[in-house]
Write a structure and sequence with these properties.
alpha/beta, 29% helix, Rossmann fold, 14% strand, 248 residues
């Protein structure tokens, strides 16, 4: 199995991160730059979807991607980014995976609201704006989150749960073709996922340093899971984006 982890395009919260007057959005949407990033990424993946060689050495996707499944979190910026790729690819199943959401979930950002959990977008929002995505049967008009702010001790457990479920759903099986999965997800969750894959302590580097895996908007990272091994083929690849559209 190959897993491609694609971070969403630039959101309004990303763009406003260094503005002391900016008020964070609880479920930020894409900026104009973010939409362009998503569109360019989608076109790039469409042009390279077909596998053009049976050479097994395709570690940089020189011979295509061959996606078999596309998943997205239900945060607006991720669904919008993923929908561009789903539309470009056309026939690749596109499904919501709730647990690949960003850390914290959907919560209020004003200090006086003390990170109160919020509902998240309802089913009708996705059906009207992103009809391509297959939604969970339980999602209704009450919203997909409807929980308290996700505590720190819940986050790594969620990443480990996602990894286990990914391997159970799509891990290599005798007599079956290799599956190639795309996650459209988030930077904070990526760090947790990397720690789950590599059994690393959370943000604990050498010599007392805190660790972090940088992901730019719409970057692509690749993991190969084969015969009891995992190989990190590349991380934070932005070669498909023009320099002016590389954002953090």
């Amino acid at each position: 199995m190959q897993l491609y982890f694609i971070r969403h395009g630039q959101s309004v919260n990303n763009a406003g991160a260094n503005d002391p007057n900016y008020k964070e959005h609880s479920d930020p949407y894409l900026t104009e730059i973010g939409r362009k990033q998503a569109q360019i990424t989608a076109q790039y993946l469409k042009e390279r979807q077909a596998i053009t060689s049976d050479d097994p050495w395709n570690s940089q996707n020189q011979f295509g991607f061959g996606f078999t499944h596309l998943y997205s979190s239900l945060m607006e910026r991720a669904v919008h980014t993923a929908a561009e790729t789903a539309r470009a690819l056309g026939d690749v199943p596109f499904t919501a995976w709730v647990d690949i959401h960003e850390e914290g979930g959907i919560y209020a950002r004003k200090k006086e609201e003390n990170q109160k959990g919020l509902p998240g977008k309802p089913r009708s929002f996705f059906e009207q704006n992103f009809p391509e995505i297959r939604l969970p049967d339980h999602l209704d008009e009450s919203g997909w989150w409807n929980r308290p702010f996700e505590a720190d001790d819940e986050r790594q457990l969620r990443a480990e749960r996602v990894l286990a479920e990914l391997l159970a759903r799509h891990g290599d099986r005798e007599g079956q073709s290799e599956e190639r999965i795309a996650f459209v997800s988030h930077g904070g969750f990526f760090v947790r996922f990397m720690c789950a894959v590599l059994k690393l302590p959370w943000r604990q580097g050498a010599n007392g340093l805190r660790s972090w895996f940088l992901l730019n908007n719409c970057s692509i990272s690749r993991f190969d899971f084969r015969k009891g091994n995992v190989m990190v083929s590349y991380v934070n690849n932005t070669n498909h984006l023009p320099p002016e559209l590389i954002t953090g």
